[in-house]
Amino acid sequence: MTVLKTSMRNFFAHKGRMALSAVAVLLSVAFVCGTLVFTDTMNSTFDKLFQATSSDVTVSAKGASDSGETTSDNGKPPVMPASVVGKVRAAQGVKSAAGTVFSTSVTVVDAQKNNLSPKGGGPTIVGNWNSNDARTMKITSGTAPKGPDQVMVDKDTADKHHLKLGDSLAVISAVGTHNAKISGIADFQVTNPGAAIFYLDTRTAQETLVGRTGVYTNVNVTAGSGVTDPQLKKNVVAALGTGYKVQTAKETADANQKNVEGFMNVMKYAMLGFAGIAFLVGIFLIINTFSMLVAQRTREIGLMRAIGSSRKQVNRSVLVEALLLGVFGSVLGVGAGVGLAVGLMKLMGSIGMHLSTADLTVAWTTPVVGLLLGVVVTVLAAYLPARRAGKVSPMAALRDAGAPADAKAGRIRALVGVVLTGAGGYCLYLAANVDKAKDGSPWLGLGVVLSLIGFVVIGPLLAAAVVRVLGAVLLRMFGPVGRMAERNALRNPRRTGATGAALMIGLALVACLSVVGSSMVASATDQLDKTVGTDFIIQNDRGQQVTPQAVQAVKSTPGLERVTEYRTTKADYTTPDGKVLKDTDITAADPTYATDLRKKTVAGNLKDAYLPDSMSVHEKFAKAHGIHLGSKIDVKFKDGATAHLTVRAITTSDDVIDQGAKYISIATLAKYVPADRMPLDELVFATAKKGQQDAAYKALKSSLHEYPQFKVRDQTDYKQALKDQIGQLLNMIYGLLALAIIVAILGVVNTLALSVVERTREIGLMRAIGLSRRQLRRMIRMESVVIALFGALLGLGLGMGWGATAQKLLALEGLKVLEIPWPTLTAVFLGSAFVGLFAALIPAFRAGRMNVLNAIATE
Amino acid sequence: MTSAVTIPRHGGTGGRTAVAARARQVVKAYGAGETRVVALDHVDVDIARGQFTAIMGPSGSGKSTLMHCLAGLDTVSSGQIYLDETEITGLKDKKLTRLRRDRIGFIFQAFNLLPTLNALENITLPMDIAGRKPDKQWLARVVDTVGLSDRLKHRPTQLSGGQQQRVAVARALAARPEIIFGDEPTGNLDSRAGAEVLGFLRRSVDELGQTIVMVTHDPVAASYADRVLYLADGRIVDEMYKPTADAVLDRMKDFDARGRTS
User: How far apart are CA A782 and CA A468, in angstroms?
Assistant: First the structure.
């Protein structure tokens, strides 16, 4: 009981000193809980949506995916004859059945040719207005579409793009472009996370999306009273036979849910991963706080021991304090987490994904996980300092404050650290020298972990060395104030080491990723320069195929030397070694593609792969399946017949562009796949006549003005787009790492604040003998900068090592150029100096405000 | 007797005043209304240049407060304090700090040295902070006087208590301040080490012409001074020239007895 009482008193007596540790716990717990609440809310939003939109039983054409994604390679949805509806109606237990037709491989533009597709990645859906939709949508103005000239739009999209009744829209599909005016606006009755939906009447939808009438993509079936969905499904299957896909509402909703789940799980675990890093950094902060509190309280603890407290009791009293801190920080963290989730939902709203706070889902596990994590991590982190507190001898009560450093522990620590770092380095060395990328990744992972731990362990030793160097370079010019700052930073290497290590973790990841990212850009650019022989690439950034009309527009553009079409589809391969590879990619292109992309071959001439009934494979594939020039492969095309193709070229496997592609000509593909099942172009390459590049670029842009969903890029633009894409990804990761870095900055503030408290008398003395406030503040700022730069140096060094190793490893996969992003790394280094300055603001201010006499008189 | 203004303001020493510091009607009070505590009650005092002055008095008499005010460490409620001809009451922190740095030396009872700096660095610290180069010859003489030549590279933790105080004395002397204030400089030392330090202070007055003001409650320490001021209840109640330990002790007993009867 007394243990609890003293712990409580200590905790509240030092609440200021605990504050920053509590914030660290709070932030980490908030991030975990925020992630959980956010993803749960997204899940339940989609869940509600899918449940609301699924009819009791849905019949779709064979070839449609489970989730009802009705796009196939030819840009049109798979369909079934209208007569199916009659057959379904006749089945037992069917109350009603309605045919629907819809497609997601469409683009809708307004009169100014602005693409109305959602920017956040949601789908664009065009379909017929039917009874099932009428259940979940309410027409808020105008009327449902009737006749070929009318279209209805959902309210979210209408609001976003300021559309009103009577506005002209154009629906662009693989069939062609259809113009209509807005007849009505319908609003969702459940939260629509971000799809743009357009309705036509049934006949217009069939003509616009499929190109003929009398067909449907789905039949929505409603059960009669007393008929369960599975029963209804059975009846419908019995009536239709096996040629169709029949799913209950639950099956459809589950399939849809599964579709979004993959993406959401990636997001969830990535965010939890970053929360984990923040926790890791927070551990350093907590260890430092408790170590310093224990050190400051050495005499007090000695007294407790002298009057009869056992080691265990002292130990426990520190742990109880940690427990209080953990509970306090975690409870606040759980609350903040919900706030964070709402903030994230708003943020998603700004990029076009609607989530309603009405759907906010806080599972009971969320606060439990948050609390447990926060408390357990805090108590574990406080364990080492608590043990040290238990070791304080009763004699300490009589000595001056400050425990003498343990030289033996230092030597063991150095040994362990060097061994770990060495082992980590060796693992990285192994990773950089393997033959197969797959073999290297475990070594890379192990190397990263071991070298990180090693650096943390020898941090205090490195601190002594690095701070001396930094001091010699930076601080000496500030004279005695600089010298004192350096000495202060060196005074407790363990503390400086831990504070710097916290910053090191975040910055090491930043450095590593920036090295890999810029190596990716550099490698791709390098290869583009070396191998690409064409000027322009036309594609849709959302992965839609290029419609035949758009391809025609490209082909009729003046000033072009040649246009190459590029398609991909899937096929089942039977290789010479007798293996059957299902659903494997195959690339069909015009023969000119061999000139557009000068891929290296290890055998044969790539041009020959485009001969009739010929193909190329890549080196790894050839090796794996015993393929030589002249080998025959049976290729059964999706939606088509089986071809016996002869291998006429073997390409290298380690390039970035079109890695692992197997080529045939479009003519070969056309021989085996019926015309109405032919996939559309995925990419179109255009090459200008000599010296007409600029004119051709302009001409191409104006030809594609009608089709804003397709982008034309020249090589410079393409490289820039690539760079932007990787840059965006990196920025997102940096944003998430910012959390860990913020916690590390709190750590620097914490260390400085506690150091200032610890050195109150010294500060008083220095002020008495004439150190000005400004000099005092500068001294603290410089100490802070040195600690931050120490962390930055370690982090950047470690991260560059990891990045360079990863590049060496990935060189086997085509990442051939190592590019160290010096501007980024320099910015991070200089930024760290600013972080140091910033972290010192409050501690320096408080030190400056100390009353000289009181400071001197402090015990 | 509330005044110790007994020395003529102008002596014969080369145009400089014979008074190194003076206080005029200095009041230092804490709190307000009923809880008002007066630590210094209209004190007038002159500190003679080139002399060793001791301030004595029982606990709570205001002796430390007086020293802190004279040294520019503490502010006064009313009255004026001059260091030479400079009025320091009313100076802002910046000027006060510079004044302490350039014109005043300090020796505290304990914790005089920065643990991160070695003895020599501690000695030259005030000058380093000011960005001044120490006078090499003077420094050597000071170091020699306090007998620390072979300890200059040692950190404070490697020095004994007496040695640490000697370093503090050396630091105070090294910058050649106009006046050195000592706050019970020998309070934490045994009698032998204390005698050593006091001996150095005496010699620095006699041989180097240094002005020293020291707060103490130890009659033996006070006996090293040229003049002893007695404080009680925030007033100067007596003074003594050329004191001996016995005379100081007797005077103290006298005050004690009077304090009890009055």
Answer: 13
The domain limits of chain B are 50-67+91-261
**Residue B64 has which token pair?**
């430390």
pLDDT in tens, A602-650: 888 889 999 999 999 999 889 989 898 989 999 998 878 899 999 999 9
Reported as type and span, the H/E element at residue B48 is strand B37-48
Between residues B13 and A589, the one the model is more confident about: A589
A-chain CB neighbours of B114 within 8 Å are 484, 762, 765-766
Nearest to B111 among A765, A769, A771 (CB): A765
Give chain A's residues under pLDDT 50.
Answer: 401-404
Domain ranges of chain A: 1-56+250-404, 63-242, 459-532+716-859, 545-708
pLDDT in tens, B215-235: 998 899 999 999 999 998 888
How far apart, in whole angstroms, are the C-alpha atoms of residue A72 and residue A78? 7
Residues on chain B touching A480 (C-beta within 8 angstroms): 121, 125, 128-129
Residue whose pair of structure tokens reads 């070298």 in the numeric block: A451
Give, to the nearest 10 degrees, the angle between helix A479-491 and helix B119-130.
140
CATH superfamily of B50-67+91-261: P-loop containing nucleotide triphosphate hydrolases (3.40.50.300)
Say whether B93 and A853 touch across the interface (CB within 8 A).
no
Q: Which amino acid is at A209?
A: L
A747 in the Ramachandran plot: left (φ > 0), alpha (ψ -120 to 50) or beta?
Answer: alpha
Residue-wise pLDDT tens digits, A146-185: 989 999 999 989 988 999 999 999 998 888 889 999 999 9
Of A765, A772, A852, the CB nearest to B94: A772
Interface predicted TM-score of the whole assembly (ipTM), two decimals: 0.85
Q: Which of A481, A761, A852 sits opposite B111 (nearest CB)?
A: A761
The answer on pLDDT for B14 being more than 60 is no
Q: Are strands A177-188 and A150-154 parallel, antiparallel or unpaired?
A: parallel
* CA–CA min distance B243, chain A (Å): 30
Neighbours of B44 (CB within 10 A): 15
Mutate to test the interface with B, among A486, A491, A769 (most CBs of B within 10 A): A769
pLDDT score of B15? 44
Flag if A772 and B116 touch (Cβ within 8 Å).
Answer: no
SS3 per-residue string spanning A585-652: EEEEECCCHHHHECCCEEEECHHHHHCCCEEEEEHHHHHHHCCCCCCEEEEEECCCCEEEEEEEEEEC
Q: Residue written as tokens 């309705």?
A: A199
Chain A with chain B: Cβ pairs closer than 8 A:
67
> Whose CA is closest to B46, among B64, B72, B66?
B66
Vertex A622, ends A621 and A626: CA angle to 5°? 120
The arithmetic mean of pLDDT across residues B171-183, rounded, is 90
Chain B positions in Cβ-Cβ contact with residue A491 (cut-off 8 Å): 115-116
Does pTM surpass 0.90? no
**Is pLDDT at B253 greater than 70 in this prediction?**
yes
Q: What pLDDT shows up at residue A400?
A: 55
Contacts of B102 in chain A (CB under 8 A): 770
Cα–Cα distance for residue pair A20/A386, rounded to 1 Å:
19
A474 secondary structure, DSSP code:
I
Distance from A852 to chain B by nearest Cα, in Å?
A: 7
CA distances for A710 relative to A6, A537, A550, A707, angstroms: 70, 10, 8, 6
- What is the residue-wise DSSP string for A335-401? HHHHHHHHHHHHHHHHTT----GGG----THHHHHHHHHHHHHHHHHHHHHHHHHHT--GGGGTSPS
Least CB–CB distance from A480: residue in B112, B128, B171: B128
Task: Among B73, B130, B131, select the one facing A853 at the smallest CB separation.
Answer: B73
